[in-house]
Design a protein that fits this description.
alpha/beta; 2 domains; 7-stranded mixed sheet; 21% strand; binds zinc ion
Length: 463
């Protein structure tokens, strides 16, 4: 166990150590600072660090040597294990985790056995980030202070790489998928080095990550709802608000009503879409989609081959009045369709125990999404289909459809996520409704199983 009991003498100790009282007023910071205090004496002996941005050496010192629990993937499978924290890099931040959300895209790593979903021999703390209280920062960290509550986002936003400088923080080159190495942040009891998924982890009592993954969240929102924003919520919401903003009064179609699709549905509602059609095979998800802003939901299994034509008819225009001369005022041909289509449908990594979609590879809904985008309309793809897709080359080349390939929904975390938090604060974006399972950390594996089975919509693990 890593949490230490509250100490009645803490105020005196803090005054002696020079830790800011501002931080103490923030939720959870007492436990965090207690850890820093406990560590400060050993750190002072171990390291000769330079001063940090809060002006004292001991207050920001990372709890090196502290043993914390984490959900660690090894070739044989994933399990909760104890990790001993190593010294951190100068631009890293130590965060005591409050909550992390279970993304479908890592279920094979969470649930796979005997090498399935494994990435070599390494020991890896799983996760796409989370939310927590900053416990310590390295000496070059400038934007984050101990005591701050931060969202650790799934995708970094360094602000300095080639893509960030061109406004594309969603493909920041500090992302391990762009070649940034995964660094060891500790070791298991047997000495095995431990890395973290995306250099963030999330399913650990501590997250140790670079400053460019951290977005301050000065808000009273619950850890569970903030955790929904770190990856899936930001992805779905950002896709239709900041990446490819919905035109108000337009027709929007969203394929898939998991947490990503539901976030896009809410974003489309916030942006003033006149019609929001959700395509989803699971009844509970269709119901939630309707609660959160869908004006109509369709079951792709019932629609079958008629789905695309049905959507085109629904989006053909507001009136069937004829123009002078008898011409049709509505869209016709492949001009019929949605102004903006989002697909959040991915391939089934494991077989769901509830209703399945029409194609486990997700190629069919991805193609349908393109087909029901009107000529000159816009298509955003956020899912992870499996295989190769074929489209009629002439219409692909010449009919004006614009395809935006999703990567974290096109989100620039540092500038966009604070705006998304404001949408929660204003009651416009309902993150809580998407938290259909909140499990204690000890039940991380069961939470991933429910996500895999699709018996829940959004699962969050609480610490
Ligand atoms: Zn994720
Ligand atoms: Zn960058």
């Amino acid at each position: 166990m890593c949490k230490k009991p509250d100490n009645p003498n803490i105020t005196k100790q803090l005054e002696d150590s020079g830790i800011s009282r501002r931080n103490l007023l923030k939720k959870g910071s007492v436990a965090a600072v207690t850890g820093a205090l406990a560590a400060s004496s050993q750190i002072a002996a171990q390291q000769n660090t330079t001063s940090t941005n809060s002006g004292t050496q001991s207050s920001d010192a990372p709890p090196v040597g502290e043993i914390f629990r984490a959900f660690v993937r090894q070739p044989a499978g994933a399990a909760i294990q104890e990790v001993r924290l190593a010294p951190i890099r100068e631009n890293m931040v130590v965060i005591r985790t409050e909550a992390a959300q279970c993304c479908y895209s890592i279920i094979n790593q969470a649930l796979g056995e005997d090498g399935e979903g494994s990435r070599g021999d390494e020991a890896r703390i799983l996760g796409h980030g989370g939310v927590g209280i900053v416990e310590a920062v390295g000496p070059s960290v400038r934007r984050i202070r101990p005591g701050d509550r931060v969202l650790v986002t799934n995708t970094p936003n360094c602000g300095e790489c080639y893509n960030c400088l061109r406004g594309r923080g969603d493909i920041c080159q500090m992302n391990p998928s762009a070649g940034e190495p995964l660094v060891s942040i500790g070791e298991l009891a047997d000495g095995t080095p431990v890395i973290q998924h995306n250099n963030t982890g999330g399913f650990g009592e501590l997250m140790v990550t670079y400053e460019w993954y951290c977005v301050p969240a000065f808000t009273d929102q619950t850890p569970a709802e903030l955790a929904m924003l770190g990856c899936v919520g930001a992805c779905g919401l950002g896709a239709v608000t900041t990446f490819v903003p919905v035109d108000f009064g337009s027709n929007v179609v969203v394929f898939g009503a998991g947490p990503v699709g539901l976030s896009s549905i809410q974003g489309a509602r916030i942006m003033g879409a006149s019609q929001i059609i959700a395509i989803e095979p699971i009844p509970a998800r269709r119901e939630l989609a309707q609660q959160l802003g869908a004006t109509l939901t369709l079951n792709p299994n019932e629609e079958g081959d008629n789905l695309v034509q049905h959507i085109r008819d629904l989006c053909s225009g507001p009136t069937d009045r004829k123009l002078i001369g008898g011409r049709d005022s509505r869209m016709n041909g492949d001009s019929r369709g949605a102004d903006l289509v989002v697909t959040s449908v991915g391939a089934d990594f494991r077989t769901p125990t509830v209703e399945r979609g029409p194609d486990p590879s997700a190629l069919l809904p991805t193609r349908q999404a393109w087909e029901c985008t009107r000529a000159a309309g816009r298509l955003i793809t956020l899912g992870l289909p499996r295989g190769d897709i074929s489209l009629p080359a002439g219409a692909w080349s010449n009919r004006g459809r614009i395809h935006y390939a999703g990567q974290y929904g096109g989100v620039n975390a540092k500038s966009d996520v604070p705006r998304f938090i404001q949408l929660i604060n204003q009651g416009l974006f309902d993150a809580n409704a998407m938290v259909t399972l909140a499990a204690p950390f000890e039940q991380t594996k069961q939470a991933f199983q429910a996500v895999s089975d699709r018996t829940t919509i959004g699962a969050v693990v609480l610490f």
